[in-house]
Write a structure and sequence with these properties.
The chain contains 14 helices and 10 strands. With 421 residues, it is an alpha/beta fold. The protein has an 8-stranded mixed sheet with strand order 6-5-4-3-2-1-7-8. It has a two-stranded antiparallel ribbon with strand order 9-10. α8 links the parallel β5 and β6. The longest helix is centred in the C-terminal third of the chain and has 28 residues.
């Protein structure tokens, strides 16, 4: 099994040869090229314009009331809010008919309010919900920093069954290092107060944790479990290529994989009924990495999701808001298929180097936003980037996890020796 990454020093690497032989479906075919699958997907998508959108992300406010120093928006310089940065009713009323009509191309079932901070323009959030809640197909969600979630807003959103993802990095001494108000004061006290308020009204709430410096994943899990929050999304800090960061990304990704290989994985295998919620995004990713022979993608950029800015412009995802070179249309002019074609070609070319990587049949590809340059092009994937090295470690974990779960199932189905005598 010489395709195993020789640069990895994961503790499972010595066991992988035997583990891979345990289940045939993860054996890699030599002639399998996932780039071809991606090319076929792009060709079908563009030639047939098969843009069947199932999810819409809406930006009610481009501004934010915080100044988190790791914010990806404007590469750390999140903008303060003023009226010019709020979506107005005219723009909203132009978007709503697009979401109401039964169209073969755009017929979403999920609407997510993002930002900026969406609660800065709560009246427009309510306007969308009131106009669309009569359609049974819609489910609403919101990603928010949680600081503006007062009693009235919490009651309204819970009553409309709008699920929330609240950004919070943990206890006060961790969260307040980077998630601060514009005056420099910490946000954790207000976030937790509002999180508890909403949790008392609805179970549909989770937390998004951004990892930066020293962290203890199990301690973070325990902290949020003490608040009755078991649906967690955890991710290391990321940044676009070419931009500076105060964080050591190599160490950050290394620390994350080290902790996953030890205490976190052990806890996952023994966490019982909460397993489906246990660091949701991470273990969903590990499940996806157990499937091969497809065109893998970590997200639904350009094929299932569409993001609409506060001005009514279309973007591949919310991280592209304001990056004019990546605008792919708008309410007035529709989708720009020429620009979409260029973007797809850029994604494919950026991943050419991936074909020599041993995990390529399983990989979920690199985040396109991280590869995107200000001139509208995408830089090639560098297999030695910290994110790629973490990906290879995660692939080892995915294989090992599948093996352990198969063993658990066997133990559950095979009676103990004393019962077979």
């Amino acid at each position: 099994m010489n395709f195993i990454d020789s640069s990895s020093n994961g503790i499972f690497i010595k066991e992988l040869t035997n583990i891979l032989g345990h289940f045939d479906e993860v054996v890699v075919e030599k002639d399998y090229r996932p780039i071809q699958g991606l090319e076929r997907l792009a060709q079908d998508f563009i030639e047939h314009k098969s843009f069947f959108v199932s999810g819409i992300t809406i930006e009610p406010s481009k501004g934010c009331n915080l100044r988190c120093d790791y914010c990806y928006s404007r590469d750390g310089a999140s903008v303060p809010c003023n009226k010019n940065l709020l979506m107005n009713k005219k723009t909203a009323d132009e978007i709503i008919p697009l979401l109401q009509k039964d169209d073969s191309t755009i017929k979403p079932s999920k609407i997510c309010f993002f930002g900026g901070e969406p609660l800065l323009n709560f009246d427009m959030v309510k306007h969308f919900i009131e106009q669309l809640s009569g359609l049974d197909r819609y489910r609403f969600s919101m990603t928010t920093n949680g600081t503006l979630l007062d009693a009235d807003k919490a009651a309204y959103l819970a009553g409309k069954r709008c699920s929330l993802t609240i950004s919070c990095d943990g206890p006060r001494h961790i969260n307040d290092r980077h998630r601060k108000y514009r005056n420099g004061s910490g946000t954790q006290g207000d976030i937790i107060q509002n999180l508890k308020r909403f949790r008392a009204l609805s179970k549909d709430v989770g937390v998004r944790i951004t990892l930066t410096e020293e962290f203890d994943l199990v301690a973070l899990i325990d902290y949020f479990e003490s608040l009755d929050i078991t649906y967690l999304t955890v991710a290391p800090f990321t940044i676009r290529k070419g931009y500076n960061t105060p964080f050591d990304l190599v160490k950050l990704n290394q620390d994350m994989s080290d902790q996953l290989e030890t205490t976190v994985m052990d806890r996952y295998l023994t966490c019982g009924e909460n397993k489906q919620h246990y660091i949701h995004n991470l273990f969903e990713t590990l499940k996806k990495r157990q499937v091969r022979n497809r065109a893998p993608k970590a997200c639904d950029i350009f094929t299932r999701d569409l993001s609409i800015s506060s001005e009514g412009d279309f973007y591949p995802c919310h991280r592209y808001y304001g990056m004019e070179k990546f605008r792919i249309g708008g309410i007035a002019r529709g989708l720009d298929w020429g620009r979409i074609r260029e973007f797809w070609q850029g994604i494919i070319e950026a991943h050419r180097a991936c074909e020599t990587c041993w995990i390529h049949p399983f990989c979920l590809w690199f985040c396109p936003w991280q590869l995107s340059l200000d001139n509208g092009t995408l830089s090639p994937v560098d297999p030695q980037r910290p994110e790629c090295r973490l990906g290879r470690r995660l692939q080892e974990l995915a294989i090992w996890l599948r093996y352990q779960e198969d063993l658990t199932k066997q133990r559950e189905t095979v009676p103990p020796p004393s019962q077979t005598q």
